[in-house]
Amino acid sequence: MDSVEATPTERASIAAGAVAGAVVYVVGYLVTYLWRGGSVEESLQAYNAVVDFLGGDPIPAWQAVGWLYYNAHSVAFTTPALGGGRTAQNLVADGNAPMLLYLVPVVVLLLAGFVVARYADAADAESGARAGVTVTAGYAVLAVVGLFVFRYSVGDATVHVDYALGVLLAGVVYPVVFGALGGVLGAVTR
Asked: For the whole model, what pTM was predicted?
């Protein structure tokens, strides 16, 4: 059986896709932070005052914005519930954040796929989709890292993004689908 080895151009395109994916993950988070960081910090004030009074560490706004960014990927975060259970929350779906936040990861991933397809000189929809899907490599890595970076613990209580859906939706489905669509757009509009 013959092994298929990537050409230097394909390897460069894959590397560019991985870098683009990582960059747009950070850009998407920063857009969310700049847009909603102030309101998130304001929403946390009462809770943080109680936690601080009890000697705990307040929830930093940057961490809570991370939960919101995963919410924009349709991934809930879980919080401890009374009685020892867990409650899943999606602030966007619950109407506690603008529905337009759903567009942040979509737009940055479409843009990344578009740019990577142009960089790879994709000439048709198929090659554009293949180039665009390479953004998954970088985006998925940071999506997995974000699951732990945005985790908040105080005592035995932990607030965190749903791990399985965080990997599946934010790390794989979103970048594959929207990176590929952006790649197709990049190829067919050249």
From this structure: 0.90
